[in-house]
Specification:
44% of the residues lie in helices and 19% in strands. By secondary structure, the chain is an alpha/beta fold. Helix 3 packs across helix 5, helix 5 crosses helix 6 and helix 9 crosses helix 10. It contains 20 helices and 20 strands. The strands form five sheets. Strands 5-6-7-3-8-9 form a six-stranded mixed β-sheet, with helices on both faces. Strands 14-17-18-12-19-20 form a six-stranded mixed β-sheet, sandwiched between helices. The protein starts with a strand and ends with a helix. The chain is globular.
């Protein structure tokens, strides 16, 4: 039975509208990915389904009692409370009371403020009578599952942890349907893997938008494609969708060819004049008029970007050589004794958690930051172009055109002169859009504009720091093709596993505590080559098992049955404790603490790791017994 859906929904200004006669349903247990080019209305469709936007025409319906929660692209700004308060304040009257109570208690603890005690008591009475403490326990449980510290200030979090908090907030409402808009943006690979596993275990019904193809392939069992205002459903996985969509496009193009040939013949006939004016041909004239209207109203498919790098003279064979490089923030090591040689034509990926120092290493390799120890040497004739994930090279107040040509009408690419408007059309900017201020562009448009700006500059070394955020899949695939054909050298920081697998020839990986190692191949190749003793966060992810209630077995006694039922909760608590300790140790100022405190935290981490190992071994032993009992 369907939970929610749309009937003949239209939305958007202009003719035709952005969304035109959209009809579909979502059933319980489906994990659906909404795909389509940047700007076709995917985020708007999610907002219509979530109730944030109303349709201009048609109906958005949901079965009575169905709850819907959404995780949007943008991270909230200006909030000065804790993670607990950020989640509680969005959970109705009782949640707002919980958030206020938490803020007052925090203020009284740090600043005294006895005058707040009366309001605290009022809130406490309200929470006593409105099941507030049950809601509080529910929030704490969600935060434990999502490995978040309730008392950390939201404003102090990284972009990735802020998105994890918003994800936890969406789950806290116990939704029947979860809507996710680009959930992997700003997340590192470890967090993306954690989110994938969490969704597979805990989220039953899901509709999401993503540019991360690996994330899409692992989660989606149905694809909805939004194209030229219309929605088409494919009940299959992503790989099958690609094949079926291409077949549908081939049929569409064939039908258009037949139509266009017929229209051309009829236009030639009407130009003959007198025969067309005879009464017996009036029906043919009316038919031609309808064909003209159909041709005029045909919605053209969005074209593909045309990406081309402005080539510079070749570098020497050696591009970059690093020897014994070391760098720290305070006493926290970022890189220790790292050496590498990058040759002309190498395509090197850089992998690591958010905040670990990937951009710092890039700057050291490019000699814009000096290492504390070791040395970096460049080869000859380097022409470096740098894609900055923060888009600092774009002037938000200038127009799209002004950001490319600096007031000039032409750009010169590979010794050929091109008008700036024509060049920008290669990056899917229509002439009217070229006069738009940058600050009103979408994230995907800004990334395309930055690529357009960089590719006007001669380059034999491309440095791309998170270039894939907000780009649609088609543009990502074109960027892949460009890089594969690019004869120069590439340094790439990315959390997109599929992108890394497609383009890089080697990976530099941050493995914790300042240890940086180099591996041949892409992301999957690194997974196969990495040491057996993995970083703690990787081990936790790979050892995650479904938390299902074990089947009763004659081979298990009463205490063993109880033990196997309690083990998942025990492991979850241990992993949450482990994540907290590891995050404390990853903080830049950790090694400025007293030696005794550092030693104590390290000892706690080792203890928790051993307990996790022991719990998993015990779980496997009990499951083995349980399986024997079923045979």
């Amino acid at each position: 039975m369907p939970m929610i859906g749309m009937r003949e929904v239209c939305w958007g200004f202009g003719t035709p509208p952005l969304l035109e006669n959209i009809t579909f349903q979502v059933h319980k247990g489906e994990r659906i990915c909404l795909v389509g080019r940047n700007g076709v209305g995917k985020s708007t469709l999610l907002k219509l389904l979530g109730g944030q936007v109303l349709p201009d025409k048609g109906e958005v319906w949901r079965r009575q009692g169905i709850g819907v929660a959404a995780l949007e692209q943008d991270v909230k700004a200006g909030f000065d409370g804790t993670i607990f308060e950020a989640i509680a304040q969005d959970l109705g009257k009782t949640g707002r009371a919980l958030a206020e109570h938490s803020r007052i208690c925090r203020t009284m603890e740090t600043k005294g403020e006895p005058r707040l005690s009366e309001r605290r008591d009022q809130l406490q009475h309200l929470l006593d009578t409105d099941n507030g403490w049950v809601l509080s326990n529910h929030i704490e449980n969600i935060l434990s599952r999502t490995q978040l510290d309730p008392q950390r200030l939201f404003a102090d979090l990284s972009a990735g942890l802020k998105r994890r908090t918003l994800f936890a907030g969406a789950l806290a409402g116990k939704p029947d349907l979860l809507l996710l808009d680009e959930p992997t943006n700003h997340l590192d690979i470890d967090t993306i893997l954690w989110m994938e596993e969490f969704i597979r275990r805990y989220v039953k019904t899901l509709l999401f938008i993503t540019h991360d193809r690996a994330f899409l392939q692992r989660l989606a069992d149905r694809i909805l494609e939004l194209d030229r205002g219309r929605l088409v459903s494919y009940n299959c996985d992503y790989d099958t969708f690609i094949t079926r969509r291409q077949a549908a496009l081939d049929v569409e193009n064939s039908q258009k060819g037949v139509f266009d040939k017929k229209l051309s013949q009829e236009e030639a006939w009407i130009r003959k004049g007198i025969k067309a004016r005879r009464t017996r041909n009036e029906g043919r004239v009316r038919s031609l008029q309808k064909m003209r209207v159909a041709y005029r109203d045909r919605r053209r498919k969005i074209g593909n970007a045309k990406l081309q790098v402005h080539a510079a003279e070749r570098t020497g064979k050696l591009v970059i050589e690093a020897r014994g490089v070391g760098f720290s923030y305070g006493q926290a090591p970022i890189v220790q004794d790292f050496s590498t040689v990058i040759l002309r034509g190498d395509k090197v990926g850089i992998i690591g958690r958010n905040g670990v120092g990937k951009t710092t290493l890039l700057k050291i390799l490019l000699k814009t930051e000096n290492p504390e120890t070791g040395s970096v040497r460049h080869g000859t004739n380097l022409k470096i172009v740098y894609f900055d994930q923060l888009r600092a090279q774009l002037d938000e107040q200038k127009t799209v055109r002004e950001n490319i040509a600096d007031g000039n009408d032409f750009v010169v690419l590979n010794n050929q002169k091109r008008h700036v408007i024509s060049y920008l059309q290669d990056f899917l900017f229509l002439p009217d859009r070229c006069r738009t201020p940058v600050h009103v562009l979408s994230g995907g448009e800004k990334n395309r504009l930055l690529l357009a700006r960089l590719f006007t500059k001669p380059a034999n070394v491309l440095v791309l720091d998170e270039p894939t955020n907000d780009l649609d899949v088609e543009t990502l695939e074109l960027l892949e093709e460009l890089i594969l054909e690019y004869p120069g050298t590439l340094l790439l920081v990315s959390h997109d596993r599929a992108f890394l697998n497609s383009v890089v020839t080697s990976t530099i990986v941050f493995e914790g505590n300042g240890q940086v190692a180099e591996y041949a191949g892409g992301y999957d190749d690194w997974l196969r080559q990495r040491p057996v003793v993995q970083p703690p966060e990787k081990r936790d992810l790979e050892k995650t098992k479904p938390k299902s209630k074990p089947r009763p077995s004659l081979k298990l006694g009463y205490m063993q049955k109880r033990e196997i039922q309690e083990l998942p909760q025990k492991i979850e608590a241990l992993e949450a404790e482990h994540a907290t300790l590891f995050e404390v140790m990853s903080a830049p100022l950790f090694y400025k603490k007293e030696k005794s405190e550092i030693a104590g935290i390290k000892s706690d981490l080792q203890r928790v790791e051993k307990e996790i190992e022991k719990a998993y071994r015990r779980w496997e032993e009990l499951e083995a017994l349980d399986t024997k009992g079923d045979n």
